[in-house]
Amino acid sequence: MLPLLAVLVAIMGYFYGIWMPKLSADAKAGYVREVEHHLDSVGAGLVPLLLGRQLDVIYENLDALMKANPEWKQIVLVDPEGKDLYPLGGRPNIRNQTDLQLIELQKPVFLNDTRLATLHVTVDQGPSIAKQRKHFFEIGIVFAAMALLLLVTMFLLFETMVIKPVHNLSRATKALARRDFDIPLPAVTKDEIGSLIETFSIMRESRRKAEENLARSNKELEQFAYVVSHDLREPLRMVGSYVTLLERRYAKQLDKDAFEFITFAKEGAKRMDQMIVDLLEYSRAGRKSGEQSQLTILPVLDEALHALSLRVKETSATIEVSEAIKDLPQLPGFHDELVRLFLNLIGNAIKYHPQDRAPVVVIDGRRENDRVIISVKDNGIGIDPQFFERIFQVFQRLHTRAEYEGSGVGLATCKKIVEHHAGRIWVESTPGQGATFFVSLPLSGPEPAALS
Ligand code: ADP
Q: Which of 230, 341, 247 shows the shortest CA–CA distance to 285?
């Protein structure tokens, strides 16, 4: 509406500031021409009267002329010698009337080349100017009303044809970002906006289909992962139990080497089982697990620490949770996933430490604008910076199983969980002195695109 008002003000400014003064000047000049024209005919009428020296008739005529034109404040008729022929009783003094807008005009009265007399007329332009002003003011009002009407019509048209459809389209776009495909779209018209709406509608439909396909294939994949892991674990369990049976029943017939081989086979089966379980957990991470809710970080950490209490005891680890953690604002997230995230990070912080020193783990947190950053710092073996990216990939380990137990899926699962929360995870470390894992989570919660 504001731009339309600005246009109205500009039009009115042009009308009153430029057009009206010009019209007014033209009208003034027109009025002078009209009086001069009138004087021409008066002069022509005086010629026979001056020749016949009919002064009485001249007086009567000029008196009548004064009465008929009240704005003619003074008429003086001067003979060629400069003597006033009219008025007889001397010229009236009109100069001290300050409210008059006087103009003086002269009209010599000629017969052929002989000048018989000169008419001097003093006219008050005031009434004529006032009349014009009133007239222009009325035109101005009509003009403003028309301009206003035009602008309001334009605005209404603009509102119906552009603003409303674009507004609705933008609402539908935002809804689409939230994966809401059912917001009604404006009607498709034949103009550019209509074609935009049509294109958007086609795009939304194809996105809806793609989402449906993706959801279906994710479900199938999850089902597949479950079936495969379940089915794979079954024969694996069989291998394990038969090898154990073999060991028990034929203990007397087996030599030392055979026992060693059986142990290797049992361990291999156990390891493979753990890998399948971890892989299954990885495939499930970052998928909707329970309802998203407003979470306080401290109880989430407590739950993870509770699950780790045995390992903490075994390793004589010290776990410090800073005061700042308690002051962190709540954030939206998936409880079970965040417990799993801290379980993995703190578990690693306890695990990757040298034999000669007990683990010390410090968990700290801070708020940075619209995010919360939580860090898990340890005094362990540390990580070479060249592996900072690699350790977040599935099955990527930096150590042998003999050195440290593990399957290399933990950090990949952490990354998936953090990304599911529209967050970021990274590590800083000096090898030999420990590592710090940072998790940054938005207070606005997982982005719609991050949900699956
Ligand atoms: P896992 O612990 O099962 O091997 P992860 O994915 O959790 O798998 O970790 C990947 C690799 O990253 C580990 O093998 C280890 O080398 C390294 N790592 C993880 N956390 C730490 C840590 N706190 N300190 C040193 N190295 C670590």
A: 341
